[in-house]
Design goal:
heterodimer, A: Rossmann fold, two-stranded antiparallel sheet, 26% helix, globular, B: Butyryl-CoA Dehydrogenase, subunit A, domain 2, Four Helix Bundle (Hemerythrin (Met), subunit A), seven-stranded mixed beta sheet, two-stranded antiparallel ribbon, 17 helices
Chain lengths: 295, 572
């Protein structure tokens, strides 16, 4: 069965190895100090999509990412791993979006470029915001079922998807009719590596936003390649392209207001030194039982 | 997130800084004609170099983040022997899957068969990185280059049948060694007989010490000419595992490279195909196979040296004694400097050899399609001689260095290095085979010594001196030292040749070989340091000290040696 899959992906600052300069004095993320990477759980999501593509010939995997020109790197990275193409959702009007405005833009774009989508897959959450809201909100706005905390897609046949979810204290298996939205956990299978032939094929792919100001594909090195190979011109959508309501986009569409950002330094407040003696161990066990930490 | 390519600037330097690279890519891509038929083919030289860079970044990523973290578990588990078959260590399958998903197979094969059409030089860089991560896994992965021999000597039908399969990730092995035919392959007895009824060849007998012996596609050396006893009765065959008939009798219990299954094979009337012409199995095809394999072991050795260096320096920076990091003690720093110097010198030799191989192999390939021009024929002859002269040096010197470096890496670790918790002991065990298989160092000496006596190395060294002068190094103290080393080497060569005594000659061979290796590597390192002093300046100084002392040692040895003293070395 051919599937039409959209993968939602985000370029994020790599917050996993933060140094002292990770935040600006104003309390925003200092993007220049952190490398921009493919949001890790979105890579897990991409792998689930690519596995369905492996099993169902004819399936297409399309990336949609929202961000500035350089975020198109996410589309290329996905194509290096087997995605068919993608769209960069980019417009000044999208800037400053919180999760609500982001999910509005993404769902509107999906309606526009993939009205017959079977499956929308994204990572559980992005490492820069950690909200886990965008996936569920996209589902809500499109009126689709959603399956969160996806660990593995067990099957996808005859319009029904069976998914193993990672939940507190165990796993559960659920089914949904297509189309639906999945958000994928970091504990799901890691994404496959970049494929060298695909890298060589797509390395020159660019979104219009990435071109030097005032120039077109015809002005680039290897210009004739862009004429011959459509896949080297990545999709790009702005507000007008998807008929988005400006009041629901970007800062205007974002009810979330950041009041303040604080630096938190973890400090040990109290500590207790135990020896390995039976007495100490017994005392600790009793204490933990009493506080219901164990038992 | 380690990346064995982007973290190691010396590799990138070796690929980008040789004037030969342009010629290599030109020969490999032939007017960049593939760009019209294959969407992943380069448009021009710069585009090809960019693609190589991106490809190696992927290899660096996978080796650093998948293969290396799996190495300890693979070493502990080893390969399993089950019902006549091999089951790899479980993490080996993970490694293979990552390499296959990345499409890192059929690296040097033409695109029309699904290959990546990479120069050997680029493949060598990948090989080195895989070995840094896990030398045992490098064995399995790099045996894909056996396909080169099938490509060169097989029929078009065989090429179309097998090459795409290797490009898709099927593994290979070369079945040469037998219990009574190790270094002396002329004694191979595995019987190949023609089955008139079914119109095919059949193999009967056994093989031993076959690396990755349960592979999908085997190249087998067997005796096709009944009644013969020497190399001229041997032919090369292709055995396809899909046809069946070969079982694994046992897997050897080895000291190192545990992930790589070393098999004893039994051939029971196994169907096979003749590859190339009868009787040329050993004298032509195995020689070709071995030359490729030797370059592969040279790359493996450099990878092991890099691993030994990585472990040594990390430990020495971290470990504190007497109130400071041990790297601050000169006795420890010297060991690490020596490892780095041997690594950089050996790597320079490795890539110079790979480039020579690239030029002559690509010209040979072109010669299969059309007649070469007289200039091309001259070029082919020149580079094929250089490749023949450099390959045994690259393999022998680097494999000995890998052992020395692994030894020193353990020494840097002190008592901890003797404990199995640290990676340096695995590297030490893995390195031990490098100076043995694909021809021991002693056999590399045999292969190289003719280039000592015929003056080839001396000429190469002289040309390098001239290049250094032209590059403005006249009066440079390192060049002066190198010239002194060269005159000692020439004096020793003359003394040995003048003696006219074969035993004396054979006994001195290893010493002359080492001298040539030291001088050539020091020159190559000097060329590198000229272009990138920040990368190679220190190693050059350290290596020059080491090479100078080594050459002096061998000079003294040969000068004080006489044919009469050979008797003291005879063992009953």
């Amino acid at each position: 069965m051919k599937l039409n899959i959209v993968v939602l992906a985000k370029q994020v600052p790599d917050t996993r190895n933060v140094g002292p300069d990770a935040m600006t004095p104003e309390g925003t993320v200092n993007r220049s100090a952190l490398p921009a990477i493919f949001n890790p759980e979105d890579l897990n999501a991409l792998e689930q999509a690519l596995r369905l593509k492996d099993q169902n010939p004819g399936t297409t995997v399309t990336i949609i990412t929202m961000g500035p020109g350089r975020a198109a790197e996410v589309i290329r990275e996905a194509m290096y791993r087997g995605a068919d193409g993608g769209y960069l959702l980019t417009d000044r009007a999208f800037a400053g979006a919180d999760t609500l405005a982001t999910s509005y833009a993404l769902s509107t774009a999906i309606k526009h470029v993939a009205p017959d989508v079977d499956l929308i897959i994204g990572g559980r959450q992005a490492i820069d915001g950690d909200t886990a809201q965008v996936g569920p909100q996209v589902a809500e706005k499109l009126g689709l079922n959603q399956i969160t905390y996806t660990e593995e897609i067990l099957s996808c046949q005859d319009g029904v998807i069976r998914v193993k979810r990672h939940i507190d204290g165990g796993v559960e298996t659920v089914e949904s009719a297509l189309p639906c939205v999945l958000t994928v956990n970091g504990s799901a299978a890691p994404c496959r590596p970049r494929n060298v032939k695909l890298v060589m094929k797509y390395k020159r792919a660019l979104a219009p936003m990435e071109l030097p100001q005032g120039s077109g594909y015809g002005d680039l090195p290897y210009a004739s390649e862009y004429e011959k190979k459509d896949y080297l011109k990545l999709g790009q959508l702005n507000c007008a392209d998807i008929d988005a309501d400006l009041n629901q986009c970007g800062l205007a569409g974002s009810p979330t207001k950041v009041k303040a950002v604080e630096n938190i330094v973890f400090k040990a407040k109290e500590n207790k030194i135990l020896t390995g003696s039976d007495e100490d161990i017994n005392a600790l066990v009793q204490e933990l039982l009493a506080s219901h930490t164990i038992g | 997130m380690a990346n064995y390519y982007s973290d190691i600037n010396e590799i990138k330097f070796e690929l980008e800084n040789s004037p030969l690279m342009q010629r290599i890519v030109e020969l490999k891509e032939l007017d960049y004609a593939d760009k019209d038929t294959h969407d992943y083919a380069p448009q021009d030289f710069a585009d090809a170099m960019d693609s190589y860079d991106r490809l190696l970044d992927i290899v660096g990523d996978i080796t650093g983040n998948v293969v290396a973290p799996n190495a300890e578990a693979v070493d502990a588990e080893g390969a399993h022997h089950e019902n006549g078959r091999v089951r790899y260590a479980s993490k080996t399958y993970e490694n293979l899957q990552a390499m296959n998903q990345a499409g890192l197979n059929g690296m040097t094969m033409p695109r029309r068969y699904g290959g990546l059409n990479l120069p050997v030089t680029i493949y060598t860089a990948a090989n080195e990185m895989v070995a840094t991560a896990d030398a045992g896994f490098q064995n399995i992965w790099s045996l894909q280059d056996c396909i080169e021999t099938l490509y060169c000597f097989g029929t078009e039908e065989q090429r179309q049948k097998y090459i795409p399969r290797v490009c898709a990730g099927e593994t290979m092995s070369m079945d040469l060694t037998e219990p009574d035919a190790g270094s002396d392959l002329q004694s191979v007895m595995l019987k190949a007989t023609y089955d008139e009824e079914n119109g095919c060849w059949r193999l009967n007998g056994s093989k031993r010490f076959i690396t990755n012996g349960d592979s999908d596609i085997h190249l087998v050396l067997a005796r096709s000419e009944a009644g013969t006893r020497d190399g001229r009765g041997l032919s090369m065959f292709i055995y396809d595992k899909r046809d069946g008939g070969v079982d694994v009798r046992r897997i050897e219990n080895k000291m190192g490279i545990h992930g790589s299954p070393t098999c004893e094979l039994v051939y029971k009337n196994a169907k096979c195909e003749l590859c190339g012409d009868r009787k040329l199995g050993l004298i032509k095809y195995v020689m070709s196979l071995m030359n490729g394999a030797r370059l592969g072991i040279a790359a493996q050795s450099v990878g092991l040296s890099q691993a030994a260096y990585n472990e040594a320096i990390a430990y020495a920076r971290d470990r504190r004694q007497f109130g400071k990091a041990i790297i601050e003690f000169p006795a420890v720093a010297e060991m690490i400097s020596n490892i780095k110097a041997r690594l950089d010198a050996g790597r320079a030799l490795l890539y110079q050899t790979a480039r020579y191989v690239d030029i002559y192999k690509n010209l040979e390939d072109i010669a299969r399609e059309r007649k070469l021009t007289p200039e091309e024929r001259q070029e082919l002859k020149q580079y094929s001689r250089l490749a023949d002269a450099f390959t045994p040096l690259a393999k022998g010197m680097n494999s000995e260095y890998a052992n020395q470096n692994a030894y020193d890496s353990i020494q840097v670790h002190g008592g901890s290095g003797f404990m199995l918790e640290y990676a340096c002991q695995r590297i030490y065990r893995d390195a031990r085979i490098a100076s043995i298989y694909e021809g021991t160092t002693q056999l590399q000496t045999v292969a190289a010594i003719r280039y000592v006596t015929n003056g080839m190395y001396a000429t190469v060294i002289q040309e390098m001196e001239q290049q250094a002068m032209m590059a403005g190094l006249e009066g440079d103290s390192t060049l002066r030292r190198l010239k002194e080393m060269a005159s000692k080497f020439n004096a020793c060569t003359a003394a040995v040749k003048d003696s006219g005594d074969q035993d004396f000659h054979d006994l001195c061979a290893r010493h002359l070989y080492d001298m040539a290796g030291n001088i050539i590597m020091c020159h190559l390192l000097m060329q590198n340091a000229l272009k990138a002093p920040e990368l190679f300046g220190r190693s050059l100084q350290v290596y020059a000290n080491m090479a100078d002392a080594e050459v002096e040692k061998h000079f003294t040895w040969i000068r004080k040696m006489t044919p009469e003293k050979v008797d003291f070395y005879r063992q009953a």
